Amino acid sequence: MNNKETGEAVMSITDSARQELAAVLAHSDGHELGALWADWSLKPAYELLRGPETGLVMVRGRAGGGGAPFNFGEVSVTRATVRLETGQIGHAYALGGDAEKVTQAAIIDALWQLPEQRADVEAKIIEPLRKLKAAADLKAAKEAAATKVNFFTMVRGDD
């Protein structure tokens, strides 16, 4: 896509890319995100438009993954919306009550929308969070695999 006035290439923000960004931020650990945000050199001026506020959301489940839906229970969710001085609006939601994490995530979402900031946000915040999440998932998978029982190799006691 080109800017008609200047002929410059304009990066478009796809919904799926922004959803993936939101997911990485939401699933990140608050301490890890905070450490990466602390290293961010040019923190923008922003105003809070909403929150951070914590509330409850009803979680629905399905018996066997495909049965009739039922109300499983409530979980706490925190959300925030910020506006940068440049006008970009960032939103963030995350499970739990970590208001600082959600505010930082909303600012990062708004920064990511600036074409001149997107590459830095990806390289310095999002990619390290992806790697940390992948390492945590691998560790959890290894721990789960260590408890796996193979019933076909067990010796029966009825000789």
User: What portion of the residues fall into strands of 2 or more residues?
Assistant: 25-35%
Structural class: alpha+beta
Q: Over all CA atoms, what is the radius of gyration?
A: 21 Å
What is the average per-residue confidence, as pLDDT, rounded to a whole number? 84
- Helical residue percent band: 40-55%
Distance between the termini: 74 Å
Count of helical regions = 4
- Strand tally: 3
Could you characterize the architecture of this molecule?
It is built from 4 helices and 3 strands; from the N terminus they run ααβββαα. The protein is α+β, with helices and mostly antiparallel strands and 159 residues long. It has one domain. It has a 3-stranded antiparallel sheet. Strand 1 (46-62) and strand 2 (69-84) form a beta hairpin. The longest helix is centred in the C-terminal third of the chain and has 32 residues, at 115-146. The N and C termini lie far apart (74 Å). Residues 7-11 have low confidence and may be disordered.
Task: Describe, in short, the structure shown.
This protein has about 160 residues and is of the alpha+beta class. The chain has helices at about 15-25, 30-40, 100-110, 115-145, and strands spanning about 45-60, 70-85, 90-95.
